[in-house]
Amino acid sequence: xxxxxxxxxxxxxxxxxxxxxxxxxxxxxxxxxxxxxxxxxxxxxxxxxxxxxxxxxxxxxxxxxxxxxxxxxxxxxxxxxxxxxxxxxxxxxxxxxxxxxxxxxx
Length: 106
Description:
- The chain is mainly α.
- Helices cover 81% and strands 0% of the residues.
- It has four helices and no strands.
């Protein structure tokens, strides 16, 4: 794949991720806090917001591992199914970055 084609994919993917993150605010953000669910999980899990995120992200990572294993076993998934898994993981990493910036800028 040519670099220009790959960068187009990156731009499209980041725009989709951004729109998803904005759209999820209605469901997950409270009191104007993007990280509400991760902070709310701290007393439930006796962890940090970052560890709460790690727990939520784990199921998505395992799903990607399973899809990769499926490739070796001749099981194909639609590109749309892959995109859903990949987008979720990208978004979790972006949220983690936000949590870390918030933590270190206090």
